[in-house]
Design goal:
With 133 residues, the chain is an all-alpha fold. The protein has one domain. 73% of the residues lie in helices and 0% in strands.
């Protein structure tokens, strides 16, 4: 299980690192806009609003932290909202087979990275948590 977790951590970390770098090195990488008009409009709106630069910087930080095996819990939690948007963009806006696979694999890896920390996270999901004070 440890080797599987290591593999998932490396794949997810490389994936997010690459996704973050590609935006900041346009002369080397091309930022994909998608094939479908709705997907393209969504990415172009994020770029025009400058939110995309923030997202890409966060992706880069998350990817590097996970690759370095430092603050993995914090990095995987920070990745959750981005993962949600990745799922929406790939599954709903793009909807073709390859993006749908990416849209399924991304949250699966993200949640797998959080699995060892479930004992810390489960108390956050209680409806009426006991107060520590």
């Amino acid at each position: 299980m440890e080797k599987l977790y290591l593999g998932a951590r490396v794949v997810f970390g490389l994936w997010f690192t690459y996704a973050g770098i590609e935006y900041f090195l346009p002369q080397v990488f091309t930022q994909p806009l998608g094939e479908m008009p709705a997907a393209q409009n969504f990415i172009l709106a994020l770029i025009a609003s400058h939110i995309f630069a923030v997202v890409k910087a966060l992706e880069l930080v998350v990817g590097l932290l996970i690759l370095a095996n430092r603050w993995v819990l914090a990095a995987a939690l920070l990745a959750l909202p981005m993962t949600g948007v990745i799922v929406w963009w790939n599954v709903v806006l793009e909807g073709t087979p390859v993006p749908v696979v990416f849209g399924i694999v991304t949250p699966a890896l993200n949640l797998f990275l959080l699995w060892p920390y479930r004992y810390l996270l489960c108390p956050l999901l209680q409806v009426d948590p006991k107060r520590a004070w």
